[in-house]
Write a structure and sequence with these properties.
The structure is a single chain. The chain has one domain (6-400): Rossmann fold (3-Layer(aba) Sandwich). Strands 3-2-1-4-5-9-13 form a seven-stranded parallel β-sheet, sandwiched between helices. A two-stranded antiparallel sheet has the order 6-7. Helix content is 33%, strand content 16%. The longest helix has 16 residues, at 155-170. By secondary structure, it is of the alpha/beta class. The chain has helices at 17-26, 64-71, 87-93, 155-170, 193-200, 210-214, 222-234, 236-239, 254-264, 283-286, 301-307, 315-328, 333-340, 346-357, 361-366, 392-395; strands at 6-10, 30-35, 55-58, 77-82, 100-108, 123-124, 127-128, 132-133, 175-179, 182-183, 205-209, 220-221, 243-245, 270-274, 297-298, 399-401, 406-408. Residues 405-414 have a biased composition (Basic residues).
């Protein structure tokens, strides 16, 4: 049995990381966390951060030198959990010098070929004919596997593929987990806010495209995401050398998700399903061009089978808890408008609904938004975002600065 008493968590202060540290402390582990210090968790969410129960190391996990300076003298760790930072540099650092026993990394599900650009023998119209996403689902490379060459339109997704590949080259017995969109208390940019805010404002309804309303949400609650990592640590033989797709056990539709949130707040919010051409208001929830959406669902069956995973918090309870927490701790509204790209333009929504209910689709189509709803600040897709004219190359140019929480473009004058 591999010893796993001394554990380093790179990150550890976010919506899932805090729950991971909680679980490790409950198991009696000696925990060190490494992060920039920009986002310190609140005392009620992570009391251990302020009680001296973990060693906290500050530094830049996005740069090779920052990693070396912060971690170079810390010695050996039985397990390293990399949730944050430049994964390729972190992986390479721990591949030399007898620095660790096991390497567990967290990446993202967006590297799957699910953005309508698929062009292979099992795709039709840009989409794979398989809508259930598992670990073996094609990723964005020329052969659909980690062995192929990255071929995404998005340089960020190409880097994600290369990072995963290098993890297993550096650490053949590593475990890698692909996270989807995460949610829960303390999520910095919560989708739930789009519904919670409307409930708090006593809106009578919310607009959503007919297709999107009935499409499933494959996402993961923060505590559930941490449970995948804990299960990988608890089951070293079953998890070594494996990739696991992370998501909640259950996948409510977007329409159900809206109702769960509204019900948890005691608000009667009507879900008005409208044709795609009238559903610009639901772009921030779709995170894509509504007319080009496809329904897919992720599966965590492999983690259930090999690791014995099951949700510690059922999805319905997790969504309701998140909504109630947001109602009590509302984030900065102007920041949410910018990041979610939801203008909360109720007057325009009302005009669209009035025309739609009269059957006047022509007038409804002609109604103009003062501020166009978008696909979200962190949109990964290849369509032009109505709220943001930047290309994916422009979005991902320069170096990420964790102290400013954004990319800094390199000046040509330097």
């Amino acid at each position: 049995m591999v010893s796993d008493n001394r554990i380093l968590v790179i990150g550890g202060t976010g919506v899932s990381g805090v729950h991971l540290v909680n679980g490790l402390l409950e198991r009696g582990k000696n925990v060190t966390i490494f992060h920039s210090g920009t986002h310190k968790p609140s005392k009620d969410f992570a009391p251990w951060y302020y009680e001296g129960r973990v060693k906290i190391v500050y530094g830049n996990a996005f740069k090779k030198k920052g990693i070396e300076d912060a971690l170079g003298d810390l010695g050996y760790f039985d397990v390293v959990c990399s949730m944050y930072g430049n994964l390729r540099s972190i992986s390479k650092f721990f591949s030399t010098g007898n620095r660790l026993g096991r390497f567990i990394s967290i990446g993202g599900a967006p590297l799957y070929d699910m953005f309508g650009t698929a062009n292979h023998e099992e795709s039709v119209g840009g989409w794979s004919v398989t809508n259930l996403i598992t670990e073996s689902y094609r990723i964005q490379t020329d052969d659909g596997t980690l062995n192929g060459e990255p071929n995404s339109y998005n340089p960020k997704l190409n880097q994600m593929v290369l990072a995963e590949r290098e993890v297993f080259r550096d650490h053949p017995t590593a475990t890698h987990l692909r996270y989807p969109l995460m949610y829960g208390p303390y999520q910095l940019i919560p989708d739930e806010y789009m519904v919670v805010k409307r409930c708090l404002d006593k809106r009578p309804y919310i607009l959503i495209s007919q297709f999107l309303s009935r499409a499933p949400r494959s996402v993961c609650y923060g505590a559930n995401g941490a449970e995948f990592v804990l299960k990988a640590i608890d089951n070293p033989e079953a998890s070594k050398g494996e990739i696991f797709l992370v998501c909640d056990d259950d996948h409510p539709t977007n329409g159900q998700w809206i109702k769960i949130i509204a019900n948890s707040l005691g608000h009667d919010l009507e879900v008005i399903e409208v044709p795609d051409e009238l559903a610009a208001a639901s772009r921030p929830l779709a995170k894509e061009d509504i007319t080009k959406l496809n329904a897919y669902m992720m599966s965590n069956a492999k983690a259930q089978r090999l690791l014995g995973y099951t949700d510690p918090v059922p999805a319905i309870d997790a969504i309701a808890e998140t909504a109630r927490w947001l109602a009590k701790h509302p984030p900065n509204h102007e920041l949410m408008k910018t990041m979610l790209q939801d203008p909360f333009e109720y007057e325009t929504e009302d005009m669209i609904v009035e025309a739609y209910r009269k059957g006047d689709l022509k007038s409804a189509r002609e109604i103009k938004w003062k501020t166009q709803p978008g696909y979200g600040y962190f949109y990964y897709g290849n369509n032009l975002n109505p709220a943001d004219s930047r290309t994916q190359d422009e979005k991902h140019s320069g170096e990420y600065d964790p102290t400013k929480v954004r990319r800094i473009k390199q000046s040509s004058k330097l």
